TrEMBL record:
Family matches, as Gene3D superfamilies: 3.40.630.30
Domain N-acetyltransferase: 1-131
SUPFAM superfamilies (alphabetical): Acyl-CoA N-acyltransferases (Nat)
PROSITE patterns xref list: GNAT (PS51186)
UniProt xrefs under InterPro entries: Acyl_CoA_acyltransferase, GNAT_dom
Protein's recorded name: GNAT superfamily N-acetyltransferase
Species per Swiss-Prot/TrEMBL record: Microbacterium foliorum
Entries under Pfam families matching the protein: Acetyltransf_7
Length: 131
């Protein structure tokens, strides 16, 4: 799982001048909570993972990675739609994505809007009524 994160995030992290092969894996391992994580399986193959952390004030999509060969096939959209449908209707979804990441367009198509940003991260939110 940490390796998938490193592979998926490498192009964006390199573009931002922030790629470190050890740190990118360690950051995942330090925050990994198995109970929050689901493996994405398509036709019997593991193609990605998604982790959602439930907090009192929000549902945080912490990790959402698809193997490069599985991107652009509608898998991410289907998984995200499924996640957004699994809500109690009271808490917004939140996530962060790297600046200029192609994934931002996916999130925007599913109702996420800019909450704040810095030089590296874009923090986004989808209200329960939009999710």
């Amino acid at each position: 799982m940490a390796e998938l994160r490193a592979v998926v995030m490498r192009p964006d992290l390199e573009r931002l001048g922030r790629y470190d092969p050890v740190h990118v894996r360690q950051r995942f391992l330090d925050a990994f909570v198995p109970e929050n994580t689901r493996v994405i399986v398509v036709d019997g193959d593991d193609v990605g993972l998604v982790a959602v952390r439930r907090e009192p004030d929000a549902l945080w999509i912490e990790h959402f990675y698809l193997a490069p060969e599985s991107q652009g096939r509608g898998i991410g959209a289907a998984v995200l739609a499924h996640l957004l449908a699994d809500t109690d209707g009271t808490r917004p979804f939140r996530l962060n994505v790297l600046q200029a990441s192609a994934a931002r367009r996916l999130y925007e198509r599913h109702g996420f809007v800019l909450e704040s940003e810095d030089a590296v991260d874009v923090f986004m939110k989808a209200d329960p009524s939009r999710a």
